[in-house]
């Protein structure tokens, strides 16, 4: 987390603006200190149970099938130490260690905090790829099996009010890091950032975190649209559920022009997906683009 940038004397127009740029800065600084203290305090009381430097053992405690290709897996810390917690920042990922008779490797997955989280568990949404080594291993895990994780890793920082609008363009499981970022911004009443999520999915069955997204529709500063490449007419959608029957295209994004330096774009999906939007944003001269 970075402290807010202090305005210089020249930044103030001396016309008695309400709020003045210095008042905004003071408020942001206060918020920053509060968050920093909070983080330090929780770290002090409960050191992180997961480490970036070595692997920690977790046990699979819950498995839920979301659709044909996706499952929600919940892992619980194996240690019974009551004074530690598994913590991470919004947008962070963990690394899983995979070993079989032929090889040993790691893969990144994004932790998700469930409502009934006990502090020593986390969940992931796994997408199974046809010939995927680790995704198939995870998809076929059974309750009670142990796995090794390390982390958290990630360079994204939520800085309250740094941007006026944050656009998030997600594909498939790319929604997971955005979910925690959205939640942390919406939970902070002092954060006035507007959040615009464009979520690309194959079909209605593969919309991940659908209920959670729908329940956040009521926030004044959050809007979302789900773009389906395979739209089915006879499916029952929720009341005013923002589902669009085509792929995300530039016309949809051009609705938000002009873009400015107060806008930030976050991209999360396959390499091809992110490259496509990165290129388009470059043409639009958008500067603040962060890829996960
Ligand atoms: C920061 C980060 C966070 C991630 N978070 C998640 C997450 O929360 N949930 C999740 O399911 N995955 C996530 N991933 C992807 C994950 O790390 C693995 O890449 C994925 O599970 C595939 O690994 P694999 O060993 O099964 O595939 P591999 O054995 O490495 O690849 C085998 C084949 O699978 C297919 N394949 C693999 N990856 C992709 C892909 N991304 N797109 C299209 N085809 C692919 C290809 O056909 C490939 O040839 C994340 C990746 C990163 C970098």
From TrEMBL:
Q: Which residues form a coiled coil?
A: none
Reaction catalyzed: 2 Fe(III)-[cytochrome b5] + NADH = 2 Fe(II)-[cytochrome b5] + NAD(+) + H(+)
- Keyword Chaperone in the entry? The reply is no
Q: Which UniProt keywords apply?
A: FAD, Flavoprotein, NAD, Oxidoreductase
Its domain of life reads Eukaryota
Enzyme Commission designation: 1.6.2.2
UniProt xrefs under PANTHER family? NADH-CYTOCHROME B5 REDUCTASE, NADH-CYTOCHROME B5 REDUCTASE-LIKE
The protein in question is named NADH-cytochrome b5 reductase
Q: Which organism is it from?
A: Loxostege sticticalis
């Amino acid at each position: 987390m970075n402290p807010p940038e202090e305005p210089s004397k020249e930044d103030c127009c001396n016309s008695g603006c309400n709020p003045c740029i210095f008042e905004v800065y003071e408020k942001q600084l206060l918020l920053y200190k509060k968050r920093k203290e909070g983080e330090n305090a929780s770290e002090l009381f409960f050191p992180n149970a997961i480490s970036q430097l070595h692997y920690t053992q977790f046990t699979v405690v819950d498995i839920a099938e979301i659709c044909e290709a996706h499952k929600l897996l919940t892992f619980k810390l194996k240690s019974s130490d009551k004074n530690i917690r598994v913590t991470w920042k919004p947008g962070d990922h963990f690394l899983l260690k995979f070993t079989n008779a032929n090889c040993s490797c790691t893969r990144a997955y994004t932790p998700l905090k469930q409502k009934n989280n006990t502090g020593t568990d986390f969940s992931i949404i796994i997408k199974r790829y046809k010939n995927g080594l680790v995704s198939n291993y995870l998809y076929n895990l059974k309750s009670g099996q142990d796995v090794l994780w390390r982390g958290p890793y990630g360079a994204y920082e939520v800085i309250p009010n740094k941007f006026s609008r944050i656009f998030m363009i997600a594909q498939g499981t790319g929604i997971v890091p955005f979910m925690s970022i959205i939640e942390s911004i919406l939970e902070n009443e002092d954060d006035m950032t507007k959040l615009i999520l464009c979520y690309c999915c194959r079909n209605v069955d593969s919309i991940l975190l659908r209920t959670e997204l729908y329940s956040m529709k009521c926030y004044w500063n959050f809007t979302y649209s789900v773009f389906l490449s395979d739209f089915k007419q006879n499916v029952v959608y929720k009341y005013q559920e923002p589902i669009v029957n085509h792929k995300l295209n530039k016309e949809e994004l051009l609705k938000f022009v002009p873009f400015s330096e107060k806008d930030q774009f976050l991209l999360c999906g396959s390499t091809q997906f992110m490259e496509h939007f990165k290129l388009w944003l470059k043409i639009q001269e958008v500067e603040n683009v962060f890829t996960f």
